[in-house]
Please model this.
Amino acid sequence: MATYSRKFGSQFPDKVMELHNYQNITTDLYPVVEQYHKYCETFDLDAARLLLTEYPELKQCMIDANSFNLLDEERYNTQIYALKSGQIIDAGESEPEDPDNQLVWIGGE
Model:
């Protein structure tokens, strides 16, 4: 049995990763983002956290270290799973004429 990383919240392969609905900053939200940045620049982190509480939609516009760490961990765990599965990945231009059961073909048109 493979050992998967669990440091940042990955549950792969037991559970599918939660999809996030990241969004671009809207015109209406721009002044709040500006204020958030000002708080961060002056190290007023309590005020910055309060803005995140008052405007939860702001979190959908932010990708932080936690987001990157979780994505990286999911990618890492996916690689472990692929290596342990014994499958062979073929990225050739044409589908193999006589593929075996372990082959995954991802190439071609």
Observations:
- Residues 13 and 35 are 40 Å apart (CA to CA).
- The chain has a mean pLDDT of 86.
- Helices lie at 30-41, 45-54, 65-85.
- Strands lie at 88-90, 103-105.
